[in-house]
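Q: I'm building a small set of examples for a reading group on sequence design. Run inverse folding on the following structure and report the sequence directly after it, with nothing in between.
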């Protein structure tokens, strides 16, 4: 609801008594091999296995990924001809070898037995270490680059491929990513949630249809549960970046939604990552509703023809974030993880207006077991249809007015919206060419 792009943060870790960063237990449960350094399934664990750490083979891309599409890992890891912004501390090994060509090199093992290596073997040993160092730096650079380009799942795939081939663990790599403001643990968890959201979006089994037509509404609830799930589907005649703009510029919500009483950014971590607060009007005798939510999103145009937005209320408010003074005076609700917005740009004939298929799926924890039926009816019969009509009106009139606040934000954050527009244009061009090829 609030944002569409993903940039992991380093400040989402909790700290232990000694100041060390702690990971949630869920990470070790979901990705045990990553944290235990288990190389049982790693190519390195086989004696006949040879893995080029600097230039992993494209043939070995059966990695643990949240994406369907295979990556060209050679380009990502800095194969010949690629230009990654890497600054290495590794020296010239040819000159190092020449300087020691007349000396006997020594290597000590853990039992303190000295092994004498000839100069050629020592040089090869140094080059092997350098290759691993280079690979690690290329890994970090590649993952950071993909994250900044909204490609969280692809970044996760590259990370998991490196872990699989090198036998390293995520814990080992945390400091490297933290230096660039990337939370590797959050990256893995986000990719996992987004992958689950992709599967959830495909089907409406188990949902009760409330309304049909251009705006389809669904509702799901288990008796006795505090969780109430709402889903809406529609196809809108507008470019996806305009729909994204309405969602991203959440602080302008009061301009068009009369039920939104307060809408603030609590923190903007970046252009593409925000934490927001809202107060929503509720009918008497209920008090108004407060919620805090963060949203991260991933460009899945190549993998699943969509932009997927992951939404959820954080377990804890980040350090330094100040909540409004009204916090605690109203009813509190949470967006549970698994909530998302999916935007799917559709192929249209030349000259026709752009179309975007939209799916909004919210899992709301009301905090109370017995929610009055009139409140559910208010959300489904009044609030949701009203917001749909308002969004349609905004898309048809506001963006054509250069003086409107949303149109101005579209220009102010052109770095974000231009990137999305170009990505969609490229995606539709490739999809159109593919569809034509199918009929040749």
């Amino acid at each position: 609801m609030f944002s569409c792009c993903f940039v992991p943060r380093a400040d989402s870790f909790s700290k232990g008594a000694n100041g060390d960063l702690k990971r949630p237990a869920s990470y070790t449960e979901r990705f045990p091999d990553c944290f235990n350094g288990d190389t049982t399934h790693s190519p390195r664990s086989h004696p006949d296995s040879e893995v080029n750490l600097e230039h992993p083979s494209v043939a070995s891309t059966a990695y643990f990924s949240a994406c369907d599409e295979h990556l060209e890992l050679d380009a990502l890891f800095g194969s010949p001809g690629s230009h990654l912004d890497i600054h290495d501390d590794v020296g010239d090994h040819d000159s190092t070898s020449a300087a020691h060509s007349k000396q006997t090199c020594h290597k000590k093992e853990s039992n303190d037995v000295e092994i004498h290596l000839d100069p050629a073997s020592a040089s090869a040993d140094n080059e092997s270490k350098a290759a691993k160092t280079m690979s690690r730096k290329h890994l970090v650079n590649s993952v950071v680059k993909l994250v900044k380009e909204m490609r969280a799942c692809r970044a996760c795939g590259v990370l998991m491929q490196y872990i699989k081939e090198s036998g390293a663990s995520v814990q080992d790599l945390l400091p490297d990513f933290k230096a660039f403001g990337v939370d590797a643990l959050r990256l893995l968890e986000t990719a996992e949630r987004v992958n689950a959201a992709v599967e959830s979006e495909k089907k409406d089994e188990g949902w009760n249809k409330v309304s049909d037509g251009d705006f389809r509404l669904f509702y799901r609830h288990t008796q006795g549960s505090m969780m109430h799930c709402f889903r809406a589907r529609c196809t809108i005649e507008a470019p996806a970046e305009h729909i994204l703009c309405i969602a991203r510029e959440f602080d302008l919500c009061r301009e068009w939604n009369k039920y939104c009483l307060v809408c603030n950014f609590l923190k903007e971590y970046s252009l593409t990552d925000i934490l927001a607060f809202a107060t929503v009007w509720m009918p008497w005798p209920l008090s108004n509703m407060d919620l805090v939510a963060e949203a991260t999103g991933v460009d899945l145009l190549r993998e699943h023809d969509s932009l997927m937005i992951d939404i959820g209320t954080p377990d804890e408010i980040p350090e330094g974030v100040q909540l409004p003074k009204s916090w605690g005076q109203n009813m509190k609700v949470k967006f549970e993880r698994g909530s998302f917005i999916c935007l799917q740009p559709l192929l249209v004939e030349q000259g026709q207006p752009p179309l975007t298929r939209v799916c909004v799926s919210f899992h709301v924890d009301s905090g109370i077991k017995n929610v009055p039926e009139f409140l559910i009816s208010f959300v489904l019969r009044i609030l949701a249809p009203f917001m749909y009509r308002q969004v349609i009106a905004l898309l048809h009139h506001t963006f054509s007015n250069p003086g409107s606040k949303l149109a101005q934000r579209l220009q102010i954050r052109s770095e974000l919206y231009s990137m999305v527009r170009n990505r969609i244009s490229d995606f539709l061009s490739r999809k159109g060419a593919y569809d034509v090829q199918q009929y040749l």
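Confidence is low (pLDDT under 50) at residues 1-117.
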